[in-house]
Specification:
single chain; mainly alpha; two-stranded antiparallel ribbon; 6 helices; 2 strands; 6% strand
Length: 164
């Protein structure tokens, strides 16, 4: 019986990319579970992540910043903020330095819910990274930062109404 022809082996770079894609799909599923369990829309979870990222970066989290990061118009951003506030997952606070500005803060309730749901995955990933040496961690960081920048550039270049 003749042997089945073998598929050409995929280059290692593509296997790594496909693995990254699989990780993002799994993470998206976990985000969807979190949203459903807590009466949220998946965009609400992304909004909380954006707000936490802004906090870690020392950025003032405003509706404008959130809308830009999520790619939402003003009305869509307001809907997300209103929903999260109703659920007790964020608060609006007047900026002490400029009373016209409203700052968004992730609530302690949201932090507790997030830690309960995502904590084991975060702890596991941190544990995995602790097994890497400094050079390996820098390679992972460089790769993930580069992919994030490629995706951000693709989004900017797609422009409104492109369907991308």
């Amino acid at each position: 019986m003749p042997e089945e022809p073998k598929e050409p082996e995929e280059p290692d770079e593509l296997r790594i990319f496909h693995l990254l894609r699989a990780v993002t799909v799994e993470f998206g599923l976990r985000q969807g579970e979190f949203a459903a369990r807590n009466g949220m829309h998946p965009t609400d979870v992304r909004a909380l992540i954006c707000l936490l990222d802004a906090e870690r970066a020392g950025e003032d989290a405003t509706a404008g910043l959130l809308g830009a990061r999520l790619g939402l118009n003003s009305a869509g951003t307001t809907s997300v903020i209103d929903r999260l506030e109703r659920l007790g997952l964020l608060t609006r606070v007047r900026d002490a330095g400029d009373r016209r500005r409203v700052l968004l803060t992730v609530s302690e309730r949201a932090r507790r819910l997030g830690a309960a749901h995502f904590g084991p995955v975060i702890d596991g990933a941190v544990g995995l990274l602790r097994g890497f040496d400094d050079r390996e961690r820098e390679a992972v960081r460089r790769f993930l930062t580069g992919v994030r920048e490629l995706l951000a550039d693709a989004r900017k270049n797609a422009g409104p109404g492109s369907g991308a």
